[in-house]
Design a protein that fits this description.
There is one protein chain. By secondary structure, the chain is an all-alpha fold. It contains eight helices and no strands. Helix 2 (35-43) crosses helix 3 (49-57), helix 4 (64-76) runs antiparallel to helix 8 and helix 6 (109-129) packs parallel to helix 7.
């Protein structure tokens, strides 16, 4: 399941090795990074090293569409061992299960019941299929995430292993696509009006 857009994965490209160019946006940073830095950033989108190495080796990308198309094709070409490696890197998203003591109103009884049901269903899923349950929640409203996750878990628990393997690969591709779109946009961020251009100095 996908982490929130502003989670740790969302900042991976900003750790690339170009501190001298703060004006570089996501896709530009990815294209100009060293192979090792690019691979590390791409691994934040999909935990398969084969996938990350392939995408890093095929740079530069002229636009986000080309990157996303290449990424989807690379996911389809992954062997079962590569998919297992990617799945091992996925975790249950913490925004569905906030840490105890987190500020904010206490969860409702319905929310707690849904979380307990998800934990039970997830444990059953891992016992049946041998890997973490993945579900892309991009575009899903926060107040609908629990219900959607629980419904998907219950449906997919009844699937045969071959069908579930295909669904899992498709969800991994959707997760990677959403993360890439957040990590490597092909347009620079909008600057606040009146902000100085990068490299400019204030005058009198």
């Amino acid at each position: 399941m996908t982490p929130p857009p502003d989670g740790d994965r969302g900042s991976a490209l900003y750790d690339l090795d170009r501190p001298d160019r703060p004006d570089r946006h996501g896709l530009d940073r990815l294209n100009s990074a060293t192979p090792g830095a690019a691979e590390a950033a791409l691994l934040a989108c999909c935990g398969s090293r084969r996938w990350a190495r392939r995408l890093a080796a095929l740079r530069p990308y002229p636009d986000l569409r080309t990157l996303l198309s290449t990424a989807e094709h690379a996911v389809r070409g992954l062997a079962p061992a590569d998919l297992a490696e990617a799945l091992a890197d996925e975790t249950v998203p913490q925004h569905l299960f906030p840490a105890p003591g987190r500020p904010g109103p206490p969860p409702s009884p319905a929310t707690e019941a849904a979380r307990s049901a998800i934990r039970r269903a997830h444990a059953a899923y891992e016992g049946r299929f041998g890997h973490v349950f993945v579900l892309c929640l991009d575009g899903c409203r926060p107040d609908e995430a629990l219900a959607r996750t629980l419904a998907a878990l219950r449906t997919r628990l009844a699937a045969c292993p071959a069908d579930e393997a295909a669904v899992t690969a498709a969800e991994l591709a959707r997760l990677a696509r959403g993360r890439l779109a957040r990590l490597a946009p092909d347009t620079p961020p909008v600057r606040p009006r009146g902000a100085p251009q990068c490299g400019a100095t204030g005058g009198t």
